[in-house]
Amino acid sequence: MKTLNRVSRRYVPTLCAITLIAGSMVQAFAQQPATTKRTLTHKDYDTWHSIQSPQISRDGKFVAYAYMAQDADSEIVARNLATGQEWRAPRGYRPPAPPPDDSLPNFGELIAAQARLARPAFTADSRFVVYSIEPTKAELNKAKKTSGSSTARDGAGSSASRDANMPKNALGIMDLSSGQVAKIDRVKNFQVPEDTGGFIAYLMEAKPATPPNKEGAAPKGSPPTSPTETFQDTDDSAQGPQSGGRSAGRSPKKEFGTDLVIRNTTTGAERTISDVLDYSFSKDAKTLAYTVSSKNEETNGVYVVDPQSDGAATALISGKGKYQKLTWDEDQKELAFISDRDDRESKQPRFKIYMWERGSAAPIAQRSDRNHEVSRSTAVTCSLAQRRRPNPKRLLKTKLPPMKKCLSISGTGKTITFNRSKKFALSKSGSDRIARLTM
Predict the structure, then answer these.
(1) pLDDT on residue 123
(2) CA 432 to chain centroid
(3) Cα separation of 171 and 130, whole Å?
(4) Residue 289 has what pLDDT?
(5) For 325, how many CA atoms within 13 A lie in the half-sphere containing its CB?
(6) Three-class secondary structure of residue 175 per DSSP
(7) Type and span of the H or E element at 278
């Protein structure tokens, strides 16, 4: 027993030393994470990403989506589901979405338009994914500083001039066989046919304004000509002559068209049409309809062209006036649009709805009476009024309560009313096709 106690007392200092060393090491390890961790900041939040607007290719082999940052530059991601291969391409900066505000006019439509801008689109043959590229955050900040310094130096400028100096969106076309991206600058919007591949149509921004020529100006009074077209066999974007800017005189707010480019994704050939304000592809890509708004107002109108041939465009209707709201029916057999050409001189012009049967080259039939059946190839008189929103149950009654900013279509003993800010669509009603409001 005495020997055991003697041995135990001998190792007490060693055990104490081991205990102290172990305790210090535990304390050091416990304090180390606290010293290396840092507090999250808004810069960290800004780089967090979320997947938005996912799309699946028609053959089911690819998925594409916008990989959106909270407050930083974002990407478009395309992934081959069979091989797992993934391609990423920058798509620019999207500011954080503002909180809902019902007091702002058309706030819902604005948010929906922003969502469409972020959505990639596959071509029907699953060979390409097409998407919009917005300016980067650095480009926007630089442009804002430049615009602010110019305004402070030269005085307050118009909002139009400030907007013209801001960087514009671009178009990205990613080849899904290689991941390579063709970028086309200054593109407003694009369309791809729903059922047929091989073509992409995109509308260019107006060309940058040039200083006025004091010694000479463009000749006026030139004879009316149809909208010009150019053909190029190149992969670079082609821009034909076009008109832009604001008109002087009695219609300062008139919007002029810009270049529309029809790109053949198989051959790389591009066809450019000038002064286009709106356009619409048929699902089978055999017809592209477009409206023209030109400084030479005699060439304004609605035209159709076959993207698969080099034939000239066909004018469905032309002349001075506005032409808007190109809309195909569900069967893609008829096209509808509105125009104020017959009442353009009025302070509140009346619009007509025109219907064109696809494949017909004859001018659209027009009728001037306000009460007639709404049927094929018929122009329906629409009046612009200041009225209150009606009860939907009363839409087809003879008389309607006043409604604010509407288009009213008169038929046989009936009146169908359309909100001016909404698009109309074509639907079937027995053997006839009537226009209806898309709510």
Answers:
(1) 97
(2) 32
(3) 7
(4) 96
(5) 25
(6) strand
(7) strand 269-281
